């Protein structure tokens, strides 16, 4: 074996050993009670080994100077892609925000429809819907309680990856003078429609994934009972020797 291949094998064996190691070796220190550090993603922890593996793989695949260039490009891309790996804690929080946002906006609209002020409505929604959405809404409420301009507060919320629709809708309402209650009600209807559409897409995906194994199970029976007798019959009726 050449040196690049040997090095690639050694790095691959190291990664395999790390993956097979007991989980406590990768355990992060106990998080402080006042901050959520989460668990670092596995691929991000293995980045110091996977990036050299990508370099050696490119070097082994394309020999010579072009191989060094290909390895460097592969290593750079691997570092960039692995650096964007989302930790399990961040992923769970993002999914929770995406799932709970339509319900939170509907509750917010109901509170505003009942005549509550925006700060009071935010507190009521946070109390009724604890979790990541409640934490974000309480931060907004605290800023509003400190006297920060509502348009500025909602403009910052508009830059949030998940709460952006709520922030952008309310900042438009504050700047245009439109009714906040009507704006939240319209946004609640829009988010509910989007949520139903995503649910329909997921349901159709489940149907496809459920039908695939069933089709694979029936495929051998179809071949044996339908295709094989047909082929045997055709060849039986043919005179191969005159």
Give me the secondary-structure topology:
Blueprint lengths: L2 H18 L21 H4 L1 H15 L2 H20 L4 H26 L4 H11 L3 H14 L4 H8 L6 H13 L3 H58 L5
Helix pairs in contact: 1-3, 3-4, 5-6, 5-10, 6-7, 8-9, 9-10
Provide a descriptive summary of the structure in words:
It is a single chain. The protein has 242 residues and is mainly α. The chain has 2 domains: 3-20 and 39-85; 91-195, Receptor-associated Protein (Up-down Bundle). Helices cover 77% and strands 0% of the residues. It contains 10 helices and no strands. The protein has helices spanning 3-20, 42-45, 47-61, 64-83, 88-113, 118-128, 132-145, 150-157, 164-176, 180-237. The longest helix is centred in the last third of the chain and has 58 residues, at 180-237. The protein is flat. Mean pLDDT is 76; it is low at 18-39.
């Amino acid at each position: 074996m050449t040196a690049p291949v040997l090095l690639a094998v050694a790095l691959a064996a190291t990664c395999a050993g790390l993956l097979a190691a007991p989980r406590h070796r990768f355990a992060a220190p106990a998080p402080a009670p006042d901050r959520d550090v989460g668990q670092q993603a596995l691929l991000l922890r293995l980045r110091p080994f996977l990036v050299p593996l990508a370099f050696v793989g490119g070097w082994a695949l394309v020999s010579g100077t072009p191989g060094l260039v290909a390895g460097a490009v592969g290593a750079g891309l691997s570092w960039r892609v692995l650096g964007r790996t989302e930790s399990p804690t961040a992923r769970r929080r993002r999914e929770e925000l995406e799932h709970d946002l339509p319900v939170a906006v509907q509750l917010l609209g109901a509170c505003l429809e009942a005549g509550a002020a925006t700060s009071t409505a935010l507190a009521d929604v946070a109390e009724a819907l604890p979790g990541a959405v409640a934490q974000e809404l309480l931060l907004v409420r605290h800023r509003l309680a400190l006297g920060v301009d509502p348009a500025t507060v909602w403009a910052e919320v508009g830059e949030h990856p998940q709460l952006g629709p709520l922030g952008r809708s309310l900042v438009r309402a504050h700047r245009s003078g439109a009714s906040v209650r009507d704006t939240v009600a319209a946004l609640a209807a829009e988010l509910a429609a989007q949520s139903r559409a995503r649910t329909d897409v997921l349901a159709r995906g489940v149907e496809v994934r459920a039908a695939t194994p069933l089709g694979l199970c029936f495929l051998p029976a179809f071949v044996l009972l339908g295709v094989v007798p047909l082929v045997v019959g055709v060849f039986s009726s043919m005179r191969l020797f005159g």
